[in-house]
Amino acid sequence: MTTLSLPAPAKLNRLLRITGRRPDGYHELQTLFQLLEYGDTLHVTARAGDAGIRLTPGLAGVAEEDNLIVRAARLLQRETGCRDGAHIAVDKRLPMGGGLGGGSSNAATTLLALDRLWRLDLGLDRLAALGLELGADVPVFVRGATAWAEGVGERLVPVELAPDWFVVVHPGVEISTAAVFGHPGLTRDSTAISMRRALDGATPDAVWRNDCESIVRALYPEVDHALTWLSRYGPAMLTGTGACVFCPFDDEALAERVLGDVPDGWRVFKARGSNRSPLHRALGIV
Questions:
Q1: Please, which residues have CB within 8 angstroms of residue 261's CB and are 6 or more apart in sequence?
Q2: For the chain, which terminal residue's Cβ has fewer other Cβ atoms within 10 angstroms, N or C?
Q3: Do 234 and 136 touch, CB atoms closer than 8 A?
Q4: pLDDT at 280 over 80
Q5: Domain of 229: which CATH number?
Q6: Is there a contact between 279 and 108 (Cβ–Cβ < 8 Å)?
Q7: Are residues 136 and 198 part of one domain?
Q8: Which positions ≥6 away from 94 have C-beta within 8 Å?
Q9: Mean pLDDT value across residues 195-201
Q10: 174-200 mean pLDDT
Q11: Does an H or E element contain 28, and which?
């Protein structure tokens, strides 16, 4: 048996603009995915000749067949006819319902790890296409680059962002993405902008905003409180549909000082942004 221990990094949405709603209920959006040097770790062990997929530990409140890790492994088996299996152990650091892409990142790491361990050699294009079947955020983790995204988040263009440090706060609530995107008050008609405009130094208030933020603040006072508190230190913003909020800093020392002021009861961490995924570095993917 061979084991790979691999990172499943978090992401931030540095902006999130909702430009329309499709007939299938999904939303057209523009976003800027920022990968972080922080996340979960998966320990993936291939089991030759045993097609079972075993996950430890399970997630509270999530049936095993609904877990994105298990779904990713079984999807790969179905698509390739592979008869091998795997035992996957998870060191979980990212909160559920936090807007950090933890489940999607876990799925992407599972796909890349098993592609390597089962010697499938599918390539990133096919793995990203499979990832999209699991969730709109999975392809960015499969492709492994900070990226400008459109469509439902699957049309990706790699970009280079300054390697800022971030303080990320989770105020202790779990948010339903479906509830936020289904809310009648959600802005769904933001004007589409060019990638160039988004990257050419626009002010956060003008372009680098999250269209979900006002709804989430109204529905979840805990998130509103966290944003109000973090905004004292810089341009704080919601990531995804939350519940996590973040603020960028020029250097680690500034971020560390903010960590020392965080109120009791909040989960908080600091992390550096990365233009290349630590998962790709670990696997030697160029």
A1: none
A2: C
A3: no
A4: yes
A5: 3.30.70.890
A6: yes
A7: no
A8: 8, 10, 39, 40, 100, 101, 102, 105
A9: 84
A10: 90
A11: strand 27-47
